[in-house]
Amino acid sequence: MNLIDKNLVKKVINGEKDAFKVLYLTYSDLLFGYILHNLSNNQDIASDIWQETWCVAVEKIDTFQYKSSFFTWLCAIAKNKIFDYYRQAKRQNLFLSTEIFDFDIDSEEIDIESINSETRSNVVITLAGLTDEFRYLLTSKYLENKSTDEIALEIGKSVKATESGLSRARESFRKKFKQTNI
């Protein structure tokens, strides 16, 4: 956990409203994107779950144990809310389950839609835990389907340096993803 977030959480626990505002502004959009992605872009449901997640975070912030980043903690709350939604939808026969799909980070193209929601959640959590550079490289390559040449041009590095960066980013992702899924 980074020191800034740790101090902010402590201030929130001590009743400082401005500290919560900083956390909220820092993670609000990223959290909404995470939730929206895991609900196949259903904005109405994502908005409800986003709000519920923040309510739980406010209620339970004093139980935060500093074992993960604040954002990872928020994602865990959101993940539980998303699962609750899917369980309820399944009971109402509105949800068709998908098979668990094991994907290969080294493949040129990944069909995100064929990966189940739990795996997608873990991918987003893992990406959030990477450095900004690694997150940018992987999202550019695999989510935006950019070529290595395009990415190299965008970041101002050679194609070879970009390929090397992608290789390191994939390795870092693999390690963190295994930790998330243990």
Please describe what this structure looks like.
By secondary structure, the chain is an all-alpha fold. It has two domains: about 5-90, Rna Polymerase Sigma Factor, Chain: A (Orthogonal Bundle); about 130-180, Arc Repressor Mutant, subunit A. The protein has eight helices and no strands. The longest helix is centred in the N-terminal third of the chain and has 22 residues, at about 15-40. It is globular and about 50 Å long. Residues about 95-105 have low confidence and may be disordered.
Task: Note the topology.
Blueprint lengths: L2 H11 L3 H22 L4 H18 L9 H22 L25 H12 L3 H12 L4 H8 L3 H22 L2
Discrete helix count: 8
SSE-based structural type: mainly alpha
CATH topology term of the largest domain: Rna Polymerase Sigma Factor, Chain: A
Could you give the order of the helices and strands? Answer: HHHHHHHH
Rg over CA atoms, rounded to whole Å, is 18 Å
Distance, first to last CA: 20 Å
> How many domain units?
2
CATH superfamily annotation of the largest domain:
RNA polymerase sigma factor, region 2, helix turn helix motif
Q: Describe the sheet with the most strands.
A: none
- Tell me which CATH architecture of the largest domain applies here: Orthogonal Bundle
Identify low-pLDDT runs.
Answer: 93-103
Give the mean pLDDT. Answer: 81
Give keywords.
single chain, 182 residues, mainly alpha, Rna Polymerase Sigma Factor, Chain: A, 2 domains, globular
